[in-house]
Amino acid sequence: MAPTRSDKPYTTQLQAGLGLVAETKTLLELWSPGQSAAALARAALASGRFPTVSARRLDNIVRECFGPRYLTAKGVLAAHAREPHPDQSPCYLTTLGVPATHLKVLAPALTTADFRQLLLLYTCRAQPILGDFVRQVYWARYAGGYPQVTNEDARSFVERGIDDGKTVKRWSESTVRRVAAYLTGCCADYGLLEPGPRTSRRILPFRIAPGVAAYLAHELHFAGVGDNRLLSHEDWQLYGLAREEVLEEIKRLGLQGLLIVQAAGEAVRISWQLPDLEALCHVLAQG
């Protein structure tokens, strides 16, 4: 049986670094297309741009955080990608080039808030435990009108995941406690929860940025996700969007001339005006 996104186990890899927003932006400036994580780590150390970070810690940031999130040529299985031919294996969602290629172009032109929203996407893909937490806990509490998300909420989520077999082996109580704190801390770094060292964090107003919506829609399209299935792809849930809300976002992109939308009932047809994701990135970077 082909693997699915849910088959990727939960790990403790967030302990290597949470959002790392400023560090990621600096590493993108230093990174050159085709450069490996190991080569980037050496370049980052030699650059002197991280004077307060030890060599070992910097190497860990690049190899355990930046690399898995932004230097991957393939994403996870697209659960809603187009139906494969009966003789073909299920089609995989690819980023058509490492995410760092696109982020390097976009980072100088994006606000910090918009940049964080893109980092959220790739970190959740690399760390399913964070993606599931955002979808299942954060947005459930947001929609329910709750004012905060606590480490206890995160702890309960982690324990349910362990009971459901989402980890390779059972975690110790101290590991569960640490991972719970990592989850809420990462959400704070990406602008979903208030920052600062605390066990209860206030939920912040959050709405997907137009540029981020354009990027995600085009990325899914160029990865082979059909127009109708694109609207219900689970990545939109990271931004609290259901199918109807995604369609409204897509229609707004149409007003900007990025695409043409035809919707009749449940059927949606989109005419994409740009040839590839790189072209979109340059359009977004130019404002």
Largest sheet: 2 strands, antiparallel
What sequence of helices (H) and strands (E) makes up the elements? Answer: HHHEEHHHEHHEHHHEEH
Strand order in the sheet with the most strands: 1-2
- The coarse overall form would be globular
Classify the secondary structure makeup into a structural class: mainly alpha
Stretches where pLDDT falls below 50 for ≥5 residues?
74-96
Helical content stands at 40-55%
The CA-CA distance between the termini, in Å, is 44 Å
Protein model, in words:
By secondary structure, the protein is mainly alpha-helical. The protein has a domain at 127-202. The protein is 51% helix and 9% strand. The chain has twelve helices and six strands. It has helices at residues 21-30, 37-47, 55-70, 99-106, 112-126, 128-143, 151-163, 173-189, 210-222, 227-230, 243-255, 277-285; strands at 74-77, 92-94, 148-150, 200-202, 259-264, 267-272. The strands form three sheets. The chain has a two-stranded antiparallel sheet. The chain has a two-stranded antiparallel ribbon with strand order 3-4. A two-stranded antiparallel ribbon has the order 5-6. α7 crosses α8. Mean pLDDT is 89; it is low at 74-96.
In short:
The chain has 287 residues and is mainly α. The chain has 12 helices and 6 strands. The N and C termini lie far apart (44 Å).
List descriptors.
mainly alpha, 12 helices, two-stranded antiparallel sheet, 6 strands, about 290 residues, globular, about 10% strand, two-stranded antiparallel ribbon
